[in-house]
Amino acid sequence: MQTLRNKSVFFETYGCTFNFADTEKIKEIAAANGCLIAQSPEDADAVVINTCTVVSQTERAMIRAINDYADKEVYVTGCMPVVQREKLLALRPDIHLIMPDEIYEKSERVGAVAFGSTGIVQVGTGCLGACAYCITRFARGRLRSFGKERIIAEIERQVADGVTEIQLTGQDVSAWGADIGSNLGELLTAVNEVDGNFAVRVGMMNPATVMPHVAEIAEAFTLEKIYAFIHLPVQSGSDRVLETMNRGYTRRQFIDVVGEFRRRIPDARISTDFIVGYPTETEEDFNETLSLIDEVKPTKVNITRFSLREGTPAAKYYDMPDWIKKNRSRKLTDAANAIYDANNAAMIGRTVHAAVTEKKTEGRMAGTVVARDRFYNNIVVKEDLPLGKKLDLRIVDHHRHYLIAETL
Ligand code: SF4
C-alpha cells in the first residue's frame, strides 16, 4: 500500500460484508495519503479490487475484473492475495498486493459506514473451523477477536455519524471471544447498552461455535437492539455429509440450536445456507436436506453449488457433474420459495413496529422506503418517510422476498 499515494483511485469490492468494511478502511488510508476517491474507473489512475474467491465462479470473475484494467495500475486485496498470490502475479507481474493484515495495521478502526445509514462492524478475523470445502480459512487464518472496547467504540462512532443499522460481521461471528475469554452473548449484551437509535444485524454464526454458549447467545437475541434474525449456515441435512465436511455438528444438534432461539423468540427469523452437490452427497443425503428445511422452515435460504477449491481437503474428492448440482439447487430453491410464500402470506393483516432503514431512489421502487421490524423482515412502504423513523405499519400484501405495508 506504500505506493497508494497522491493518485485518483477507483474501488471495486466483491464478496462478504467484511470486505466492504475493509474497502472503506483502505479508502480512509488512501485519502490520508493524498489520494482522491474516483467515482468511475475512467477518472482513476489506479484501481483497488477487493477480492473474494469462495467459489471458482467468483475467482473467474475476479480475474476478469483484473483483466478489465490492463491500462491501469491495479491493487488487489481481500482473500486472493493470501491464497492465490502466485496466480495473481502470473496474471499481472506488476500487480500490487495488499494483504488484509496490512489494513488492520494501518487502520485502528474495526468497521466503517458502508451504505447510507448502515454501518459494518467487524468483530474479528478468521475462525475456529476446519471445514473441508473452505478456502476462506486459509485466507483469514485462525480466529483473532477484536477487543470488546474497540467494537463498542466503533459502534458509538457510527451511531454518532447517524448510522441506524449496524451489521456485525466476521468469518464466524459466534466464534467471537473464544480466544479472549468471552463469548458473543456477552458482546451483544454490551452492544445493547450503547445509547442511540440503532439496531444490530448479527452476521453468520457456525452452529458448532454457537453450541457451547447457546443459552447465552440465544438470550442476547431477545434484547431490544438485536434483530431477531439468526443466520446459521447448516450446509447439509445429512449427518454423513456434515461429517465429511468436518462441520462439527449433527443435524439433530442444528435443530436443537434453532430450538433454543425459537423457544425464546417464537417468530425469530432463521436464515441458513446449504451447499448442494457436495462430493459425498447421495440422492438420499440430498433428500435429508429437503426434509430438514421442511422441518425447520427457515425464512431465508442461501444455496451454493459445491465448488472444488484447490488446497482444501475436499479437493481430493471426485466433483460431480454440474447438471446434478443444478437439479438439486432448483429443487431446494422451489422448496424454499414455498416456505417464503406461506410465511409472507401469513403476515397479511398483521401490524408490526418497524424502523425505516433505507430509501429507494432508483428504478421501479423509487420513492418507496424499506423498513425493518424486530425480525429484520424486509418491508416496503410506498411513502417517503425519514431514515430512522420508527412507526407501526399494517402488512397489506407480499412479494416472495419482501412484505408491502401501509402506515396506520
Ligand atoms: S467456519 Fe468453516 S466455512 Fe466458515 S470460514 Fe471457517 S472454515 Fe470456512
Low-confidence stretches: none
The number of helical elements comes to 14
The main pleated sheet reads as: 5 strands, parallel
Query: What is the CATH H-level superfamily of the largest domain?
Result: tm_1862 like domain
Task: Give a structural overview.
This protein is of the alpha/beta class. The protein folds into three domains: 8-103, Methylthiotransferase, N-terminal domain (Rossmann fold); 110-346, tm_1862 like domain (pyruvate-formate lyase- activating enzyme, Alpha-Beta Horseshoe); 349-407, Nucleic acid-binding proteins (OB fold (Dihydrolipoamide Acetyltransferase, E2P)). The chain has helices spanning 17-32, 56-67, 80-83, 85-91, 100-106, 136-140, 148-160, 184-192, 207-210, 214-220, 239-245, 251-264, 283-296, 322-345; strands at 8-13, 36-37, 46-51, 73-78, 96-97, 111-115, 118-122, 124-125, 144-145, 165-169, 199-202, 229-231, 269-276, 300-305, 351-359, 369-373, 378-381, 390-398, 403-407. The radius of gyration is 22 Å and the shape is globular. Bound molecules: iron/sulfur cluster.
SSE order and pairing:
Blueprint lengths: L7 E6 L3 H16 L3 E2 L8 E6 L4 H12 L5 E6 L1 H4 L1 H7 L4 E2 L2 H7 L4 E5 L2 E5 L1 E2 L10 H5 L3 E2 L2 H13 L4 E5 L14 H9 L6 E4 L4 H4 L3 H7 L8 E3 L7 H7 L5 H14 L4 E8 L6 H14 L3 E6 L16 H24 L5 E9 L9 E5 L4 E4 L8 E9 L4 E5 L1
Iron/sulfur cluster binds next to helix 6.
Descriptors for this entry?
single chain, 408 residues, alpha/beta, Rossmann fold, pyruvate-formate lyase- activating enzyme, OB fold (Dihydrolipoamide Acetyltransferase, E2P), five-stranded parallel beta sheet, five-stranded mixed beta barrel, 14 helices, binds iron/sulfur cluster
